[in-house]
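Apologies for my clumsy wording, but are you able to produce some protein sequence, whichever is easiest, and the tokens describing how it folds?
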Amino acid sequence: MEFLNFKQYFSASRVNRYLTAAGNSTEKAVELYKANLKVSQSFHPLLGILEVVLRNRLNDILTSYFADPDWITNQKTGFMSDPSLSSYTHKRTGQTKRNDFLKVVIKRAEKRLQKTGTPITSGKIIAEQTFGFWTGLFEVHHYRLLKGKPIQIFQTLPSGFGRKEVNDELGKIRRFRNRINHNEPICFNGNAVDFTETLAVYHSITNLLGWIDQDIVEFLFELDEVEETIDKAKSI
């Protein structure tokens, strides 16, 4: 593809950053753009497995806690409707915010299923939920209402690690996941090629999975090509 066409299709504002990092070499800029996509691609197996494992383990823990396999729908009128979630004042901005996110997204999922004539089951509702729903259970307001049960999915947390540290790691991964899904670059620090932050997210993912069960990390061995792909990108 001619570079002018490449720039037109992928937008000048996006491509120029790669061009700057490539020392104005159009050929190298295109290769770096492709390399960024390949690194992003290499994260998908890990992110997908983290999401599935996190969802299933949290569902197991909360099914046991509520003694209810349908907790995800029944708790719309339970902890998800607790008066403490109606509103709060953001400490930094002073703005009034609402904390009923979990209940809202469950209701939306039910409406989507109703529109398609799909029977509403807990399994369907669970499958409809985003990564943000599950990480939201570690936010302090939900976590307190759940009596700290979500942390029980981790068998081997390091000393000194608790809800806040896990929530920070999950937040870092969630933001990174959104960047990948929106085709944003993950290979820069300023205008320089630098995968330090990307590698930090990689270690956050493998750490979290290992804290749940080290066998999951071993299962990923043949699927995990992140570091290898990053090394190839660095050589451009």
About this structure: Residues 26-66 form the longest helix (41 residues). The mean pLDDT is 94.
